[in-house]
Amino acid sequence: MTPLQVFLFFILFSSFSKADPLQDFCVADLNFPQGLAGYPCKSLSNVTVDDFVFTGFRNPGNTSNMNMFSITPAFVAQWPAVNGLGISVVYAEMAPGGRVPVHTHPGGTELIVVIEGTIIAGFISSSNKAYTKKLEAYEAMIFPQGLLHFQVNSGSVKAKLLVSFSSPNPGVQIISTALFGNDLSSEILEEVSSIDVAEVKKLKAMFGGTN
Amino acid sequence: MTPLQVFLFFILFSSFSKADPLQDFCVADLNFPQGLAGYPCKSLSNVTVDDFVFTGFRNPGNTSNMNMFSITPAFVAQWPAVNGLGISVVYAEMAPGGRVPVHTHPGGTELIVVIEGTIIAGFISSSNKAYTKKLEAYEAMIFPQGLLHFQVNSGSVKAKLLVSFSSPNPGVQIISTALFGNDLSSEILEEVSSIDVAEVKKLKAMFGGTN
Amino acid sequence: MTPLQVFLFFILFSSFSKADPLQDFCVADLNFPQGLAGYPCKSLSNVTVDDFVFTGFRNPGNTSNMNMFSITPAFVAQWPAVNGLGISVVYAEMAPGGRVPVHTHPGGTELIVVIEGTIIAGFISSSNKAYTKKLEAYEAMIFPQGLLHFQVNSGSVKAKLLVSFSSPNPGVQIISTALFGNDLSSEILEEVSSIDVAEVKKLKAMFGGTN
Amino acid sequence: MTPLQVFLFFILFSSFSKADPLQDFCVADLNFPQGLAGYPCKSLSNVTVDDFVFTGFRNPGNTSNMNMFSITPAFVAQWPAVNGLGISVVYAEMAPGGRVPVHTHPGGTELIVVIEGTIIAGFISSSNKAYTKKLEAYEAMIFPQGLLHFQVNSGSVKAKLLVSFSSPNPGVQIISTALFGNDLSSEILEEVSSIDVAEVKKLKAMFGGTN
Amino acid sequence: MTPLQVFLFFILFSSFSKADPLQDFCVADLNFPQGLAGYPCKSLSNVTVDDFVFTGFRNPGNTSNMNMFSITPAFVAQWPAVNGLGISVVYAEMAPGGRVPVHTHPGGTELIVVIEGTIIAGFISSSNKAYTKKLEAYEAMIFPQGLLHFQVNSGSVKAKLLVSFSSPNPGVQIISTALFGNDLSSEILEEVSSIDVAEVKKLKAMFGGTN
Amino acid sequence: MTPLQVFLFFILFSSFSKADPLQDFCVADLNFPQGLAGYPCKSLSNVTVDDFVFTGFRNPGNTSNMNMFSITPAFVAQWPAVNGLGISVVYAEMAPGGRVPVHTHPGGTELIVVIEGTIIAGFISSSNKAYTKKLEAYEAMIFPQGLLHFQVNSGSVKAKLLVSFSSPNPGVQIISTALFGNDLSSEILEEVSSIDVAEVKKLKAMFGGTN
């Protein structure tokens, strides 16, 4: 919104009043602009029990894609009730051979519990040490905030995971997509990644990058 | 530790040295005294991938008890890797008819995902409004920090839940146990709870309280 | 505010401008919707010294009620200047025999100073241990965040207390009112509280609950 | 503690053990070195209700001093139970004509309630605006974190105040003492304060400074 | 904004929509009212790389003023991209003999790096101890949050400094200006600062104060 | 430190005593084990002004290495005074053609100011959008917490940068080194990065990885 912009739109705060009692929670009202750590609160009079329930995991996405995995997030954008509560959750499935590529969450720690199947999971520390482990059903692993990590379905059946985060909006940056799915020039990418320019161009083609 | 106490015990810091690099995580060393928000860090040279993996959910407790539920926590005391990472996790089972009694977590928000079975779950707000819902498998519900909440197995099969918290050590206060399982006098309890003294005495007998 | 809602109300930001200097404080403007941790700031040009002064304790409520106590809060709703400053204050009076029933503050620690009279105060820890003490005038006690606690006037004169909180909006949940002052079914309440259904029904009648 | 220092003292951790349950509070053990935000916790087995009670306000200091006021703090050093709980409290008395000189609290907001007497209190904002007010008994005022503020007894009787802080250890820096009670050279002081060097030397004599 | 105020201005949220993805940053939209810890976020679709670049240090102010220094701040008001990121930066120049008068930052720690020249810098602790040092080019010094500190150009060439802060909006309170540049009465000022009333009046004249 | 370890080492706390006043800062004592957010404090009696001054930037490392850059960090390990103050600083030089490879800081935001030379700097958002810019001397750029970013010396003279962080210990993870400088198997790396296994093996050779 630039200073020159004419202010014409009207906001309906009809559901707010000074009499609104103070809240124990702050269900996000996604109609408002996002603030530093989340959204303003939906008026208490409009909040019902259904705000606190998330049913999206009952219909997860399919795994017929390049990485053979599906992710169903319940971050604040999908589940406004987590706004400001320091937690969120994701349900993931990986077909045999599927993987969650190397990625980071800039804003939070990830904690997975395997519900079905067998996976290999790992993270890499700032000391460049890899911590990897094969996990069976009902085993859990934690990936500390901001570090590179990945999961691979190493078994012969579909793997199912419940994934918690220490933030309602942890963010995600998949390394290959982040590097090769935009318009950064291949020459700069080669320079700052040490990956050969021919490989860079192949990866750009794969991830939709240009230049 | 009183000022008069003779200092006799010796601490072995053999695993620490000034050369220890800065850590991306802080696996708790439970041998040290607890600090404000957790424990000092285990020396990095002693940390292995097994610190980041929790296998305790593979052998949950049984549900043959008064409330017909079992709780297997992975808080910092059971899983030192969650120390300082703002998250922890619990696995719970409830036999048909079982329940998790009304309780609060003074230090964090709770987020449940039903894995199997059908439950009724609810919380009560500061405005004394009850938010309750029947949840099927793969549905999730959130209980904002510090508020009274409960779960009941309303189905005919064992219910299984994965429960995340926005703290490595959320604490728990089960209301009936907290009120009636100690030596608070029955007269004061009647006065501050409005529960009839005869009922108070019955509950004290049930929960092991005295006076 | 649903997406379908017609935007009709108009907001006057006439008192805001880009030239507004950055503020050392954030007196709440209660006309705006509440955010994650409080309210947006009143424009600096409208802030006067009277915003920082609270005079409500000069006329406390009377103590002619079921619990024989009066509470005069200076939380953010009553004193917008505490917004964002991590503190608030309450003045309380208890007639002889009066009490503040068992309650928790989901969002903060409570610290009381007795100004006049004699009270018995206590809290209960997660280990179900009761910490209780008789307090005289000019003695102080602290009740750590989120734990059950109570006060009883054990003397023969009116007790007066100043009560500070580590939050501008600590919330409060009085256990008996929270459990028995709503529409939770008596059967579920019996199940999750272990209190006999007849007693539950008696308490529901007392606290205005239904079902 | 330098690397060359010979390690001779012994610490008795006899009161700690891995079996110590997780705590709802962290009563400071002042025998340990201070950490970033406070002290390590006293072992739970040594904590009693008396840790949570502060009786020091019953015997406040006298007001026969240069500023005719007395301050009885209950910060973490005097009341270890406030450690980590985000709050502390002070009792103050000012004789008629007494004053609390201009000062700041680097680590917290101050909230006063006048119990007896009449004072003039004020703070100065970053915009150099003074917010001052005469306060009667049972009126409250808040001084936002880090800003210059002061109190003066403007009445004819002793004034009594209860003062809360949004930190267990807010710190205090009395401007005149901080500037003129040390060995900063008078020439530098004149330069950085714009106060005439003769006045600087007079103030140094008053506050015990040298150079 | 009082309840009686007529709502006439209109806000254009045309740049916001529910489809806005969650952001990794929160470039301040200074058109919105300030919140507790900063501003709401500019819509992601309006954010460009230029938001993340600050060019104001290329044209610093001149040093022809009473204190012979110039300050070019890149706080949130000048550089909206720092909003919510816990950091900001300032460029300062001091002519020979110039100084930054004694001041505090209520909201953050200051860290300086000398780029050119020689300065004397110092801060004063709560124990009234002065920590001062002569600094050459490429030496750094840190001034912990909220404490009184100052810098003086003690060399014969212009000194240049880069100054970082642990907050996007640390605030600043220059002691002499804060005390003597407003309408606080000279008598109260003498009382609360111990500075002679004649000197107070001289300083009021210098800093534009009245009364 | 395992429970079975014999406690033999002795700690000298000779420099600590209960009389130690509360501190305004917490200069790290690196002899103690690291805690959740930093180190315990050095005893105040051992703190001098030199603790608050860092001189390491006067002798930066040379740029004769693979990436033609040198980094001189003043994180808590090098400058214990930044402990707990939410800030740190680094001095960097890049020879012409030098670069800081793509990396993240898991624990903080980075803010650079170019002192000499011309660079191209950029970061990539969670939406896979690249924000890149050519920066001249005395221009600044900010890289929000946890996101991939890089710098390249695009000019013909040595570039000099001052780099601030919003944490005393932001951590750093250089992507190529993190992925290819350890013992993760080339097959898993290919799978989770989409980089061809031949290129993976070439990179492993370059960065010292095995398997």
UniProtKB/TrEMBL annotation, chains A, B, C, D, E, F:
Mn(2+) binds at H103, H105, E110, H149. Belongs to the germin family. This is Germin-like protein. Gene3D superfamilies: Jelly Rolls. It is found in: Secreted, Extracellular space, Apoplast. Residues 55-201 form the Cupin type-1 domain. GO terms for molecular function: manganese ion binding.
